[in-house]
Design a protein that fits this description.
The protein is mainly α and 152 residues long. The chain has 4 helices and no strands. This is Succinate dehydrogenase subunit D.
Length: 152
């Protein structure tokens, strides 16, 4: 005797069929971006660490004057800007993937992504402003804290 209300199972050898068809390769592009940005970030971060910790007096030389002198060069501004932007995009994409994997309810997923993207925008905008509006020679600062470029 067969029942007509029983659910039917598909043959396990049938090819996998997606439940929802998409025309976008967004997840593929995100995956490729994570790999490429990770390699570029390795170069940027280790270059940053080498210059800050190994060249000159090492960690003892890092102070306001060191950063002020470094950020007077457009090269180091662009270097640090690329490092900031890539690190923020890389991290945001990684956390977005985690939210998609573990947040089960759509409303929770939506709010987590809203907070994530808001944090991304705030940190990226503020970091960019700091890099490009940084004043290495502020008025009234003690002379021993200023970089040597301020006295030329």
């Amino acid at each position: 005797m067969t029942t007509t209300n029983a659910p039917t199972l598909s043959d396990p050898r049938d090819p996998y069929k997606r439940l929802k068809t998409t025309r976008s390769n967004y997840e593929l592009y995100g995956w490729v971006f994570m790999r490429a940005s990770g390699v570029i970030l390795l170069v940027l971060i280790f270059g940053h660490l080498f210059v800050n910790l190994m060249v000159g007096d090492g960690v003892h030389a890092i102070d306001f004057a060191f950063v002020g002198g470094k950020w007077t060069s457009p090269f180091w501004q662009v270097w640090d800007l690329l490092m900031l932007w890539l690190a923020m995009m890389h991290g945001t994409n990684g956390v977005r993937t985690i939210i998609n994997d573990y947040a089960e309810r759509p409303l929770v997923r939506l709010w987590l992504k809203i907070f994530l993207y808001a944090a991304f925008v705030i940190v990226t905008v503020l970091g960019t402003l700091v890099i490009f509006t940084f004043t290495p020679c502020p008025l009234g600062a003690p002379a021993d804290l200023l970089p040597s470029i301020c006295f030329k």
